[in-house]
Each structure stands twice: as C-alpha cells, then as structure tokens.
Amino acid sequence: MSEIRRLAVFCGSNPGAHPEYLDAAREFGRLLATRGVGIVYGGSSVGLMAALADSALDDLGEVIGVIPRVLVEREVANTALTDLRIVDSMHQRKALMAELSDGFVALPGGIGTLEEFFEIWTWGQLGMHTKPCGLLNVSGYFDPLLEFLDHAVEEKFVRDVHRSMVIVEREPARLLERFERYVPPRVVKWVNSGTI
C-alpha cells in the first residue's frame, strides 16, 4: 500500500481542443486538495497546469511548482503557489519533482508531458523508484498511446510487467484509489541486451 502525501502531475501548458480537458484538470486539483494530497507540478500559470494548480489553491491545497529559470524569464511562472522552486534545467526539474512526490500522474498534454511521464516510468522500470505511475485518460485522450504500448508488448519491446506499471483510469477519484492501493511489481533487472 502506498502513502500518497504528494503527487507529481504532468500536464499541458495549453488548454487543449475540448473543454473537458480543463474541467478534468480543475476536478483533479480540487480532489487532491480535499483529500489532503499536495501537488507538485511544472509551476506554470497557463493551460491545464494553471487550471490544476488554481483549483487546488482555491480549496486550500498545497501546490509546489518546479520551474526552470528560462521559463520564469518568459513570465509564465505561477507566483501564487504554496512554494515555487526555480531550478537551472529541465533535468533538475524532473529530479526535484520525483524527490518531492509519492507518485506520478499525467493528464492530457503534449511532447513535454509525454517526455516527463515516459522518463519517470522508465525510472520505475529500472528500479530507481517504486512509486505508482498513472494516466488520467480524459475523454479517451491516451487511447492511441495505450494501443501503441500494447503493440510494443506484442512486438517484445516492452515487458508485460512494465506495461502493467501504468495505471489508467478515466475518473480522478478511481485513479487516486488505485494509487493508494498500489503494490509495485517485481522489477526485472537488465543486463547488457538481455534480462534476468
């Protein structure tokens, strides 16, 4: 069982094409705040990132932003947060977000969202952490990605045990419940090009 005190949330700096994406980000922010779960996110004041943070803050939730200095200088940092951490690089951002969090969730987003989620999932695959990783599949946004991941399993590039590490739900409350019950699978250790 996992004790979830804070979740890192990766999501878009754009609002997306459909209002359901913003609605889901706001709902997730409110849910985490009312459950006493803090948020660690990219620190932006735009898009789904802002909707998530602002809704949690409205319900007196803890929201920690982690943002590279280059983005602060472009004036997209959210200065109304519980805590805003300014770092020097994207690598530092991801490492600090991982350190501060007990699990990782991706909401709809673009290249940055996917890159952050895949890296943290890879860290779990390699045994660098045992924290839950999940996708909030708003309006089926991640369906094509999930089909591709299943294809990668069929083609023997992803192991079933690693594919099963990604928790997928359409409802925020259900995703959080599964995170709280999460038991990490046995990690397969990699040696050269084979596995043991």
If you had to describe this structure to a student in words, what would you say it looks like?
This protein is of the alpha/beta class. It has a single domain, classed as Rossmann fold, CATH 3.40.50. Helices cover 42% and strands 18% of the residues. The strands form 2 sheets. The chain has a 7-stranded parallel sheet with strand order 4-3-2-1-5-6-7, sandwiched between helices. β1, α1 and β2 form a beta-alpha-beta unit. α1 packs parallel to α2.
Helix-strand blueprint:
Layout: E1 6-10, H1 19-34, E2 38-41, H2 47-58, E3 63-68, H3 69-72, E4 83-87, H4 90-100, E5 104-106, H5 111-125, E6 133-136, H6 143-154, H7 160-163, E7 166-169, H8 172-180, E8 190-191, E9 194-195
Parallel strand pairs: 1-2, 1-5, 2-3, 3-4, 5-6, 6-7
Antiparallel strand pairs: 8-9
Q: Indicate the CATH topology.
A: Rossmann fold
Distance between the termini: 26 Å
Task: Please estimate the helix content.
Answer: 40-55%
Tally the structural domains.
Answer: 1
Q: Would you state the CATH class?
A: Alpha Beta
Order of helices and strands: EHEHEHEHEHEHHEHEE
Roughly how many Å is the radius of gyration? Answer: 16 Å
Quick one: biggest sheet?
7 strands, parallel
Principal-axis shape equals globular
- Poorly predicted runs of 5 or more residues: none
Reported CATH architecture: 3-Layer(aba) Sandwich
Summed up, the helix count is 8
Which class of secondary structure composition applies to the elements? alpha/beta
- What number is the mean pLDDT? 93
Spatial strand sequence of the major β-sheet: 4-3-2-1-5-6-7
Roughly what fraction of the amino acids lie in strands? 15-25%
Find the count of extended strands (DSSP E, 2+ residues).
9
